[in-house]
Amino acid sequence: MALASLHSICLHRIYGFLKEGMWKFCLTNPFSELPAQDVNKLMEMTHLHQHEDPPNIGDVILLLTSGRLTRLDLCPFYPEEEQDLIVKAKQTRAGSIFLPNCASYSKELFIFHLVRNITSVNPYLEEFHSYIHPGFDVLRNCQNLRILTIYPSYGKLSLDHFPVNLSALSSLRKLEVLHLSNMDTDTIANVLEICPKLISIGLDDSLDSMEEIHQRRLKNSSLNFDVGSHFQLRRCVWGKDSWFENRQERRVYNSGFCDKTRFAVTLCPLVQELIFYVHIKEAMKELRFLKQLTLLRIDFDRYEGDFVREFVALLQEIGPQLKHLSIIWKEPFIDYYRVPVDVICDCCPHLESLEIIQFIFEPGFSSEASINFPLKRLKLSALYESDPESVLSLLSNCKHLEELFLEDVDGFDDALLRQIFESNRFTELKVIFVEGCNLTREGYQMFMEKASSFETVFIAADEENYFYDAKRVFKDPNLHYLEDAYFYVKLKEFFLCRLDEKRF
């Protein structure tokens, strides 16, 4: 047996013993001497089972207080629901956690001190994700921190409203990814200027902050910003993902949108991954100066009017450098918004991943480049008025697909699938996820019979769901899917993972 396999088996056995409480009466924490990578792996096992077996802090308190963690994700836990269990675990198990008079604490104060203590006993943290802010004084001691994400508190808890401590953040010299809830324009601008190594501020829109920084630098003319004045940001969100209820506010915002975008491009020329909400179509021109951009999600749902010509012009400029493209089109569907799908293929010859949401495109491929489209991943979603010919044309010519996700695609049924298979055998397809379409059991069997490379298949039909996974022990393709199968497949979709708030 390979050493790696034996090691994995041992970790799974240890995790099982941990859940059973084997070490609850130990005088010292048995995990404090384990390699950090093993303690991290054991914590990952807890998160892997969160849908079928929600994790409890009381079960893994020894891991959380081992002092060996380099990655700490507290988001899957619900400590407010297990206060008594945590107190009992603290009293009976080894650990370095201190909660004086915890029985008399209010729920919020108890949870706050719990998170503070867990954080403080793990000084080697490189990643920290939580709904509960532990306080900047504790985070200051985590000098290896590269990723810090604090999300808004859920339910009735209100433990995320901490004023941003710029001094503490500036002391974290290795910090690369920062997402703090409730950061306003000035705060984001201040954070960017005191944290020079930041490559991402999460899914916060930084467009207004870029304008603020630009204005500050204009006022402070005594400083020379020509050399090394740009930021190191690699991942950005530009534009507001919201509707303006007030027309005057919308007019003011839109009037400066092109300038804001130009300032952002100038200050962030190294951006590689961008989520861009289009409010003014002319602003798209500025993106052509992002020479390192390889992933673009472009959202037109906030724009009113025709924008197809400008979008095609943008693709003609930056298409050759793009590897991943996500397009969120415009509602309501209007015929003159249609784009020939071969335009995307011709403009983006190196595209590996494509996501199309609320999108109407015309069928047909006009060039050899389109027919030899190198696409590996495709997701079509919310195509409620799609033309089956368009879907047929696209899927028939994606010969190198490895992942296919279809959600709410009108017209995708057994008959259309049969037509697609006549021209494309999907010889490299490994993952298929179909939901909200019109496939039946016959369509599922067609996939299983005609494509031999599949590793995972999940099809949600009208009356029944079908699930197959080559890694599972039972290979019967008609076996009813497990409860976690839906998430097991769906959450692996490329753009969902790549643009996830914990990663972006």
UniProtKB/TrEMBL annotation:
<protein>
    <recommendedName>
        <fullName>F-box domain-containing protein</fullName>
    </recommendedName>
</protein>
<dbReference type="InterPro" id="IPR032675">
    <property type="entry name" value="LRR_dom_sf"/>
</dbReference>
